[in-house]
Automatic annotation (TrEMBL):
Sequence similarity: Belongs to the paxM FAD-dependent monooxygenase family.
InterPro entries named among the record's database cross-references: FAD-dep_Monooxygenase_BioMet, FAD/NAD-bd_sf
Lineage: Eukaryota, Fungi, Dikarya, Basidiomycota, Agaricomycotina
Region (Disordered): 1-22
MF annotations from Gene Ontology: monooxygenase activity
Annotated protein name in UniProt: FAD/NAD(P)-binding domain-containing protein
Domain of life: Eukaryota
The entry's keywords: Monooxygenase, Oxidoreductase
Listed Gene3D superfamilies: FAD/NAD(P)-binding domain
Amino acid sequence: MPNSEPGLDFVRAPPSVDNQAGTSAPLCTPAYRIQPGLAAAIALKKSGHNVVVLEKDSGLGGSSGEPDGCARVAANGSKILLDWDLEAMALANATFLPSFWLYKYGPEEAPGSNVLGLHNYEDSLFKEAQMEGRHMVFRHRSLLRILYEKLQPQDNTKAGGDADCGPHVSVLFGAEVVNVDCAACAVTLRSGEVHTADAIIGADGERGIVRRVLMDEENAGPDSATGLALYSAIVPKALVVQNGIADMFEDGNLSSIWAGPNRGNRNGVMEGEAEDVNICLYTPDSSQDGTWKDETEMTITDVLGSCDARIRQLAGLAGPATCVQIKKPYELESWVSSSGRVLALGQAAHPFAPAAFHCYSAALEDGAFIGRIFSHTRDHARVPEFFHAFQEHREPRCARMNGADNVYIQLMTMPDGVMQEGRDAGLRANHAAGRSVLDGDLQDVQDEFIFVCVEVAAASIRSN
Ligand SMILES: Cc1cc2nc3c(=O)[nH]c(=O)nc-3n(C[C@H](O)[C@H](O)[C@H](O)COP(=O)(O)OP(=O)(O)OC[C@H]3O[C@@H](n4cnc5c(N)ncnc54)[C@H](O)[C@@H]3O)c2cc1C
């Protein structure tokens, strides 16, 4: 909406590039961190505000030696990418997820004995919700690159704006925040540099400083362990082909989920340069408290347990794996600091389990939403009011998405027993009747997808 009135400064530039905070200067946010940080930066820039994104990594998505990830963007998130004119880039870098096969995780006792059924994300679901988005799967770094390129100055010029006079976004790499001063609305970098702003958005993840600062304000206890960890790795498609298991991912069979006991596994093709395969395993066998960037102490084959021979073969071909513990996170009462000037967003505000279906789409929604809210003001005094409005609107929705994701993980990793027998019988009955495998008993989980589509479609209509 380029506007001749200056906006606000969100995590603001260093003092040498003074943004006249306290006057009617652009609202500037230090939106530090990447995915929702970049998404929020895109949306705030559209709303006419200046943003400085501070990222501790030296380059986009970390160094090339670090493991890459798999970004599954549910339809509500991909709709936002389309709204931001990123369709061509998204189509060139993602694969669609129209359906998935569901299997029992254990060894196959007879041909086909593991099959539980096929789930289709029906076209009608998207059509009813007037959604153009589809579930899409990217490489983590590809998604970051798409968002980052959207922020480059030529986009401003293309949109008819003036690259020199319009709202300005800069992304500073190697800029690790070591302190957040909520009262002064300032952050200090490891280099000693201090950035002040009209507002600070902390999109620095569930282990980041902003969440910690807000937890300290609430005297919160730590997140608690659940005993499950998520292993993630990428298998080069060439190896899948060479080893004769490409049929696992052919004929539209791009993704499969393998359920319990006590483990869950999801495999799927990621489009992009190589169409490689991502393997994700929920396992009770590792207590390593790792991150998305650290290589694992044990290999993925060490923590597979008893499984189908094809899964073991696939896992044996995987590149470096990461291991992230699944925790029951402390739920922040307030996503906003008591000063009203610092907001947590993305995983920092509402941590999803690793590899949950809505991690990325919720982060994209957060970014789009913060931009929409701040399109209504250029008044510095209203930052606390708008930050609180953000939480008020986003918290219930994120809680519903998070709840649906947790149900999926519980269903996937359910131990053998009476409940699991009921689950399998219901799924198999759906499949035998030609229905999608998650229909019926699991309608609540399905409904969440429908709700997601409807609500975002409505929001997009309102914003037009
Ligand atoms: C390398 C990587 C790979 C991932 N792969 C997957 C995957 O395969 N599947 C999946 O479901 N999710 C993955 N994720 C998580 C996924 O990105 C998030 O769940 C989602 O995008 C929302 O993330 P977030 O930005 O809120 O937090 P995060 O993704 O945790 O990002 C936090 C960011 O903040 C930066 N940061 C942290 N502290 C500071 C600081 N003090 N100063 C400056 N910058 C800081 C970090 O470098 C990082 O870029 C991955 C994350 C990363 C970083």
